[in-house]
Amino acid sequence: MSLSNGQIPAFAGGNSTLDQPLRFITPTIPPLEHVLNIYRAVYENGALTNSAIVARFESALAERIGVRHCIAVSSCTSGLMLVLRSLGLAGEVILPSFTFFATGHAVVWNSLTPVFADIDRKSWTVDPADVERLITSRTSAILAVHMYGNPCNVNFLTDIAAKHNLKLIFDSAHAFGSRYDGHPIGQFGDAEVFSLSPTKLLVAGEGGIVATNDATLAHRIRAGRNYGDLGAYDPQVLGLNARMVEFNAALGLTGLALVDRKLKRHNQIARAYTKLLSHVPGLSFQSVRDEDTHTYKDYSVLVDPATFGMNRDELAAALRAENIETKKYFYPPLHKQALYRAYYDPYRHKLESTEAVSGAVLSLPIYASLADETLEKISGAISRIATYQSQHVHCDAI
Ligand SMILES: *Cc1c(COP(=O)(O)O)cnc(C)c1O
């Protein structure tokens, strides 16, 4: 069997699948007029930061998530920094190495020592059994990540934290709209921290949300985001300026109305990709429990070079030739990055699944405005590349 001209992948001399380069992400944001409807009066009043719209945004989020306190901050990173600081932690914090580096930064900024736990081979979220294995007398907290919006094993982590008297914090940057056993992410642990940056589902331009049921912690975060000062001009804690500006809160509040539609579309796209790609040899997918809701902030596949006929980096290059941009979320894992290598202890940390997943992961374009036709073309291109490889890699070898 030979491939017709239209079936030859671009990297091998065929035509590109798309005429124009396709951006990896295009944020879906509300019409500016809708944002200005909220923002204009506040602007004209001269209240530009941490004022009435921020307060409204916080209440709307607390109600939606079903949590007592939501505190708006300048970013998820500053939110995580403040949470770890406000919990008065010392010693070691256990976190996955398979995450975005901001998760680790929050730990190191607080002079805490990151300890790397492995991920579950199927869900790609932190493996609670490995977390428990790593606990010592120096451990003060677990910092888990809902990877791409796939909820962690919350019950198992909650039990471990209670049993060992540890704080439990979730980096929920990807998980606004996720549900664990039907309950909104944001309700769990000592605190969960969301990101509202442009690549996330709920967008405020820049911003973060700390969600917690702990009134003392909420009070400290409110002080902490405002230099540590709650108005007495005598800070009791060493804070930051991590306030949210009013415009971002107006954007976030307006965008809140779009979130359910986005969630639905991201889930549709993910299902379509999995359906179209499931017959391609050498690809595998993230498992999600039926009881949970995933946001699919990102959609990634694992590429097995032996079966697919190409490794992940070669597939990324072949897709670039088709005008399809991809990302490697998240490669390299933390323990292989310059800032974190010194914390890696190969005798203590067992990161087999982290290495396997991060070494094979490829994230495909996913956003609400991505058309069915485009995702079908992307899947078609991957399928064609696999077919071409199955016919040519073997010929070369003979
Ligand atoms: C995006 C992201 C962050 C950082 O969020 P910012 O709001 O940009 O600070 C933290 N953790 C993870 C897992 C992320 O993907």
Explain the overall architecture.
By secondary structure, the protein is of the alpha/beta class. The mean pLDDT is 96. The chain contains 13 helices and twelve strands. The chain has a seven-stranded mixed sheet with strand order 1-9-8-5-4-2-3, sandwiched between helices. Strand 6 and strand 7 (183-184) form a beta hairpin. It has helices at 32-45, 52-65, 76-86, 101-109, 128-134, 154-163, 215-224, 246-255, 259-277, 305-308, 312-321, 352-360, 372-397; strands at 69-73, 92-96, 113-117, 139-145, 167-171, 179-180, 183-184, 191-195, 208-212, 283-285, 299-303, 361-364. Helix 3 packs parallel to helix 4 (101-109). The structure holds pyridoxal-5'-phosphate. Residues 75-77, 99-100, 102-103, 145, 171, 173-174, 195, 197, 208 line the site of pyridoxal-5'-phosphate.
Using brief descriptors, characterize the structure shown.
single chain, 398 residues, alpha/beta, seven-stranded mixed β-sheet, three-stranded antiparallel β-sheet, 13% strand, globular, binds pyridoxal-5'-phosphate
In total, the number of strands is: 12
For the termini, the CA-CA separation is 17 Å
- Provide mean pLDDT, rounded: 96
Number of helices: 13
Query: How are the strands of the largest sheet arranged?
Result: 1-9-8-5-4-2-3
Helix content: 25-40%
Strand content: 5-15%
Structural category: alpha/beta
What is Rg?
22 Å
Overall, the morphology is: globular
Q: What compounds sit in this structure?
A: pyridoxal-5'-phosphate
Low-confidence stretches: none
Task: Sketch the topology as an H/E string, one letter per element.
Answer: HHEHEHEHEHEEEEEHHHEEHHHEH
Instruction: Report the major sheet.
Output: 7 strands, mixed
